[in-house]
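Final report, Chapter 2: Outcomes

The project's central promise was a pipeline that accepts a single protein chain and returns its three-dimensional structure in a standardized token representation, suitable for archiving and comparison. That pipeline is now operational. To close this chapter, we reproduce one record exactly as it appears in the project archive, with the input sequence first and the structure output second.
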Amino acid sequence: MGTRTIRRTSVTLPALDEPGLYLSNVTSLEGGRGRVADFQYGNADLRALDLADVHLLDGRISGLRAQRTRLEKVRVDSVEFTGCDLASLHWSDSKVTRAVFRDCKLMGAVLEGVTFDDVVFENCKLDYSTLTHVRTAGAVIFSGCSLRETVFEAANLTKAAFDDCDLRLTEFNGGQCRGLDLRGNDLSQLRGLASLKQVIIDRAQTLQLAEALATELSVTYGEDLDAK
């Protein structure tokens, strides 16, 4: 079983290449009795993807495109999502364990009450998304992702790490961020700095936070007044 490590944060990856595990092609993610296991699903272009009370276990989902996506009480265990475009995603009251989202477009997504445990987002676009009451029960890594104007609302990010991400106008509002690892990112345009108590940064990033704070406080520099 492999791992993905960013500094002090290590995520256990899906074990989909284990001897004896065979993934069968499926034509739907709904499954019988609310369970889809040992599967491959992909290259589908859907008008809508609606899943509720479904358990996705040991599978690969690739090239899935949906114009509207609604996921409610969906449990994900050991699943890889690759090259998926889930427009208008609304994901609620779910748990995601040992999952990888790679090269996925989740722009404008709304996630509410989703628990992440050993999850990697790699080279994904989550711009303009809102993550409300999401929780990191285990390690979570955002690597090379774009999160422009994304809002983390009352989120628990204590076991998360961001690395080489676009955090322009990303906002943190309430929640718990103690131990959140923000090293390796430009923090100069963050919003909601009061919520970032006890995060982990490099000393060189202190000036970036100072710049973000000055913008957030709408300060006026005396030198600019004197020059008028």
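Archive annotation: DSSP finds two helices and 17 strands in the chain.
This record, like all others produced under the grant, will remain available to the consortium after the project formally closes.
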